[in-house]
Amino acid sequence: MSNGITPDEQNNNPSEIPCPLCNEMVRTGLVRCWNCGSFMREDIAEAYRKMQENPAPMIFSPLPEETEHSEEQEFPSTTATMTGYSNSDDDDFELDQSIAVTEYEASDDDFQLNDDTDSSQDQQTTIPLAREESEVEARQHADSDVESEAPASEDKAKQIDKAPAEDHSVATGGDVLFNVALEEEKEEKKRRKGGGRRRRRRGGKVEGGIVVYCPNGHRIRVREEYRGAAGKCPACNVMYLVPQTVPSEQEAEQTATADAQTEAESSEGFNAGAYTHWLEGIKLHAIDPTKLKLKPNSLEKTFTNVDLAISPEKMLVLVVAKAGLLGSGSKDKLEKARAEIAAHLREEKDEAEIPAVSVQTVTAEQISKLRVVFPTMYDHESVFAGVPVFGKGRIAIALPKQQDSKENQYLTFSLSEYRKLTEALSEFFGIDQLGQDSGIPLTDQMQQVTCHYSEESFEVLDNENLEFYEADPEIELTLAGRQCQGCQLIVSEDSRKKERIGGKAGKAIAKTKCPKCNEKFGNISLYQLVKTEVPAEAVAE
């Protein structure tokens, strides 16, 4: 059936209008869009924003006036009930044996009095409960009113004489309830170890004891018996822990001395049997050649720390302990594992049962074929094309490839570690030429130079091998002088300071003009090895 409305009339009087924000059709009359929730009319949106910015103030109605007996009518419970009820919060919350305070002296209660309660340390009585105080005061106030009123006639006097008969029973009942409440309070005190909130403080100061600090920095003195317990700061109510018993200073010194002696004995008595050469903390790199990136330092951090145990027959590559969060195990853990491995080798037990994470054996025949892969005499002969992928100043040796493995293994050394390795290989296997043609300084190469100003001669390291010394953490260098990059003029560090060449610290020496060739001095530094003084006793031994 037709409703008599043409399509043109529907368009002129639509029942839906588009949302001004999302253009969704919304039925006319709606305040908000059903799709995006925005207001359909700008005036309503503006009124809503004003209402949110200026909310209506809160109105508080006055409390009804309390009558004289309103509290008794509303809470008809006895004093004993109120006593137990007031202490209900204390049972839910118990600390470890409360703490006594001096600077703040912690008491045996762990719960402190409210800030508005004034009580001294000499006060030894229990602070009465709020319900008990109101009842006693009310009774005393009633008695004082009766005594103050003078009887106007004999009839009133008789009525007053009769009144105490009724008041006596009421008063007696009140005293009974009051006594019951006190007994229950005493029982509560015996049952609870921590005590209530309104107990008295412990009198007297703590003698001796220890001083601890809460997380907010308050100083608290605690008795020795509470070591290991938890307490509550009386100043800020923050929980703190009392440390366990620690040894005295004398015991600590004795313990440190004993540990030092034990460590010295263990280092001197480290005996691994036939494995007389032991290198600690050598880096082992396992590299997939297909994934190798020829960039400086690209493999510097991809390594496993291993120990090398070398005997006249073989060399063991030992992973002593599992790596920790920082890449290696703790020092104590490593030392303990090394001692166990050394004892196992000293007793010549089965190598398959060595107490290490992993063990790789390099035989004497394989040792004779070891070769240095970095650095090399010529870059095109190197697998790494002369790029220091293991880090500047590191020396790399290729290990025999393991079966069923796609990765190549390389041991990398600092200069001092490499010299220890070559010493062991020379002693056991007669290998003296390992890396000799690679430019590695097996011995310190020194050259004699003369200062231009003081004309004094002094020795410096050869700069061609300086990167190996700079990268070795066990070698300490000291700046001895500077060299002009143009005319090779030598100036000692002492003379440079006297002549003020490059400033006081020499930072501007690269741009300073040479006194001989009048060109820029450059930044060529000359170094010496720091000589360590050997004790006379060690020399005698």
UniProtKB/TrEMBL annotation:
Biased amino acid composition, Basic and acidic residues: 130-144, 153-169
Domain of life: Bacteria
Polar residues composition-biased segments: 75-87
Region feature Disordered, mapped onto this chain: 57-92, 105-173, 247-266
Biased composition (Acidic residues): 105-119
Biased composition (Low complexity): 253-266
Signal sequence bounds: none
Protein name (database record): Uncharacterized protein
Organism of origin: Gimesia algae
